[in-house]
Amino acid sequence: MTFDYDLFVIGAGPGGLAAAKKAATYGVRVAIAEQEDLGGTCVNRGCVPKKLIVYAADFALQNKMAHSYGWSDCPTYFDWTLFIKSVHKHLDSISESYLQQLQKAGIEIISERASFLDAHTISIGGRKVTADKILIAVGGQPLKPNIPGIEYAITSREMFQLPYLPKRLTIIGGGYIGVEFSSMMHAFGCQVTLIEKEEMILSGFDDDIRSTVQQALSKRGIKLFTNTTIQKIKYSEECLLLTINSESREIVAADTILVATGYNPNTKNLGLENARVELGENGAIKVDEENRTNQENIFAVGDCTSRIQLSSVAQAEGIAFANTVFANKPQKLNYDYVPSAVFSRPEAASVGMTEAKAREKFGESVKCYYSQFQPLFYQLTEKDKQGSIKLVVNGDSEEVLGAHMVGENAADIIQSLGVAIRKGVTKQELDETIGIHPTAGEEFLSLN
Ligand SMILES: Cc1cc2nc3c(=O)[nH]c(=O)nc-3n(C[C@H](O)[C@H](O)[C@H](O)COP(=O)(O)OP(=O)(O)OC[C@H]3O[C@@H](n4cnc5c(N)ncnc54)[C@H](O)[C@@H]3O)c2cc1C
Ligand SMILES: NC(=O)c1ccc[n+]([C@@H]2O[C@H](COP(=O)([O-])OP(=O)(O)OC[C@H]3O[C@@H](n4cnc5c(N)ncnc54)[C@H](O)[C@@H]3O)[C@@H](O)[C@H]2O)c1
């Protein structure tokens, strides 16, 4: 049987784009369908605009300290509307550059929503196309909990479209998105309340990292409610009123409510039943280690598989898929050492096992090295700004199992350290390494 394409990719986020581009280098005839802008969540309403807002917020934090560094205080004004316009202009230019890259690679771009008619046939823009292999890379979308009045809350998607900064912002969910936005928006002068249902924010991270970030956010003036959920949200002329289910049963007033309680796979109305593709929990596409679904010719990568919902992971899965299927270079990803960072202030980053996970696996032989330090940058001014680092080590082999950090440049430091940890570096080898002084990263080389 002949097909219109060798590979049809649904979704042009980091996963779909990486797979399409890699497959095209192997001489494969590729088409990619995208219903919105090229680049997916990451470029258009995730990592990239988020990091630009982090940079904008850093100016506010640095301005506060500038007088300690000899700069005279002068009035400053932050124009959110102007700033967010220039962010979107930049995002458009990234989408445009993807368009050129895809065209140059000979990949056909179809700017429509795609859905399955059967395992080899896709319906798109009122026509049918066929493909030998199909890759599902449709990402996810924000999950809104079932709370009366939740329709008044916005998601991270709308945060990037805010026409002006709210005076009072309440965030439901103290995970990656909630913590990052609470930190950025507080720096711009918003009164931020963060509500988390667990005992501590940032579930999944090492407990020492969670508590350091939590204390730092509180110290900066973010109002935190943990062990707390929302009973209802009520609209009033002046504001939105949240009734919270905590010991105090307080009512919190907000101008804007951001809900950031997780991401669900985008697998509804995709016609997956027509192709008989099996779904798992919360509609995640079930795949094996080579990203193959239960259908021999259909694969899935990225957030829609709900493995690790990060851009770098989606991208790596896309490349591994193309190498395995089109270049006869079978590639399975190792998910044990995926580094990740929370771009709050202070920044937090992690690679490898948390102390709790390591103890679960290796028991009492696990050794942990923990230190809090005062980053030089803050030493002229805010005396209580603490960085913290932690190494989790297998006591028998001395192998480093995990590294965790809160503080300036944590993401970059952990990323580099991740290479050594993945290669099995021992605590002794770290101790023997000469660092760069004065930096925060050198703290990892002298832990005792
Ligand atoms: C606010 C925020 C901040 C984030 N920050 C970071 C960060 O700093 N670092 C990090 O690593 N990750 C971050 N992430 C996560 C990251 O954005 C995702 O993990 C990543 O984008 C997943 O890539 P993907 O290719 O699986 O899906 P997506 O990027 O979601 O792309 C899927 C694409 O498929 C398209 N699509 C869906 N259905 C169809 C259809 N039927 N037909 C055609 N097209 C379709 C969608 O329009 C979308 O463009 C962040 C996420 C958010 C929301
Ligand atoms: N820097 C980054 O890499 C980055 C940044 C943003 C998002 N992301 C990705 O996007 C995904 C989605 O982010 P997210 O922050 O929405 O999800 P998340 O899973 O990181 O956090 C959700 C939080 O909401 C809490 N929660 C759930 N229901 C609640 C309720 N009813 N009331 C109060 N709290 C509740 C959970 O306990 C959890 O702490 C993440 O899993 C991450 O993979 C990554």
TrEMBL record:
Alphabetized Pfam families for the sequence: Pyr_redox_2, Pyr_redox_dim
Cofactor(s) the record lists: FAD
NCBIfam families to which the protein is assigned, alphabetical: PRK06116.1
EC number: 1.8.1.7
Top EC class for this record: oxidoreductase
Keywords carried by this UniProt record: Disulfide bond, FAD, Flavoprotein, NAD, Nucleotide-binding, Oxidoreductase, Redox-active center
GO terms (BP aspect): cell redox homeostasis; cellular response to oxidative stress; glutathione metabolic process
Active site: 437 (proton acceptor)
Binding sites annotated in the UniProt record for FAD: 51, 303
Keyword Lipid metabolism: no
Domain FAD/NAD(P)-binding: 5-318
GO molecular function terms attached to this record: flavin adenine dinucleotide binding; glutathione-disulfide reductase (NADPH) activity
Binding of NAD(+), residues: 173-180, 196, 262
Residue intervals of the Pyridine nucleotide-disulphide oxidoreductase dimerisation domain: 338-444
GO cellular component, one term: cytosol
Biological source species: Desmonostoc muscorum LEGE 12446
Family: Belongs to the class-I pyridine nucleotide-disulfide oxidoreductase family.
Coiled-coil segments: none
Cofactor: binding comment: Binds 1 FAD per subunit.
Intrachain S-S bonds: 42-47
Protein name, as recorded: Glutathione-disulfide reductase
